[in-house]
Give the backbone structure.
Amino acid sequence: MNEPILSIRGLTKTYRGGTRALDNVDLDIRPGEIFALLGPNGAGKTTLIGAVCGLVRPSGGTITAFGHDLARDWRSARARIGLVPQELSTDMFETVWRAVAYSQGLFGKPHDAARIEEILRSLSLWDKKDAQIRALSGGMKRRVLIAKALAHDPELLFLDEPTAGVDVELRKGMWEQIARLKERGVTIILTTHYIEEAEEMADRVGIIQGGRILMVDEKHAMMERLGTTEAVIDLAVPLGQLPPEVAAFPVELGEGSTRLIYRGGTGAGGGAAEVAQLTQALTRAGIAYNSIDIHDSSLEDIFVGLLGEQEVPA
Amino acid sequence: MHFNLRSAYAIYRREMARAFRTAFQSILSPVLTTSLYFVVFGSVIGARMEPVGGVPYGAFIIPGLLMLTLLGETTSNASFGIYMPRFTGTIYELLSAPVGVAETLVGFVGAAATKGLILAAIILGTATFFVDYQITHPVLAAFYIMLVAASFALFGFILGIWADSFEKLGIIPLLILTPLTFLGGTFYSIRDLPAPWDAVAFANPIAFLVSGLRWTFYGTADVPIAVSLGLTLGFLALCVTIIAVIFRTGWRLRE
């Protein structure tokens, strides 16, 4: 495996007032991957990004990026890191072109008009290059922030809720842009509330809650390991109790005993085959049914389930 | 020590662009105000006043009026320059960039000082329409104006980091700097004040600045030029030290 592009060890952040936003976080990010950091509000996602990008002073732990200790060699590391913040924070009276050119210079790059043009065109902002940012729509403003973050060609890009408040069509457009960045070799860490966004794009997923990383895994591995199949069988006649040949399956009766609910299998499959066996068992037992609704659990189901487990007192 | 010239220039250029974007507020407004002072106190009232220390009254007030504008504008410009990114959240970009205290100061403070110098040049040019004057030590005057502009731009930078509201941002220039400049010998020589007010007036540090600039203009002042220069340099060093501590601790910049 390649050396991690970003390595975090024992990262802790306690704000004044005692709020512990990060609690002994360990995390490695691999070069070229899209890593999705999922967590509810206040979980510590933005604090984690802030600690890496220099916005937050860690209370403890170490952060190493590109082999540089961020506490000592922060200049070398920061020159290769880009950040798209959650808030639409930019000088609203500046033009798009000037804003992006400023970011390029701020990160120590020589003025490169061709590169700025390329970035603006790729984000469909070229027509708006002379417009003041305040005159743009919310989605365009967010793209300006992405353009600013890309102006110095970062190798590691943080996207903090990149599609928050963005309509469905534009969100899909942004997913395509993020995929193109990955193709160019940019490592991307994104936080998101939209689990489907992580499911769509991420190579690996980390789940954070209460400042602690609960789980980090390949997205597919996580779904295989924690995923299940759910089937809802709409019965023709309510059942008083489950016959023995059906009770052997992981099923329960629901909604006035007119529904048989199966939860089993794994994300790797197996559930669908078992549902087929269940339907045969129903037929053998003479139990008629009208319809079957079957689906595999999504990343969102896994996410909600994991957080739910954490909230149960020990 | 590492210094990223491109980063510093990017900040400087953007701050200068901001000033020209708001030229009426940044340049025309202070020039108009100072011109009114020249018309009222220099031409109209000044014509009836006795010379002060051998200097015609209209010319006598030029260094004080220049100092009045320079202190207020450089402080406000620098404080606004760093306060606005904090207020709007755009400071994230500065904090996440590979720039340290040196680039930040050269960018923000350099721009504020440059704006102060442009204002000073315009005010001196404007003054020629209303009063006759000649500068005895032009090189030293230019150096002193630059020194004061840089010092108060640094002071304004500290103010912009300290302030957590627009009200606080305006308090120091309006309620402290302007009154102290008025009472610091802008319109009169402190030595002409009756005792004990002449001694009390020297508790006002701005009096030393006005006096220093007046010496570079006319070769005569209330206190020796070396004292004014020493105090100004000391103030500059104090501001640089405070800013270095702010950056090291992240006070009001990094959570």
Summary: Chain B has one domain: 5-249. Chain B touches chain A through 26 residues (CB under 8 Å). The two ends of chain B are 25 Å apart (CA to CA).
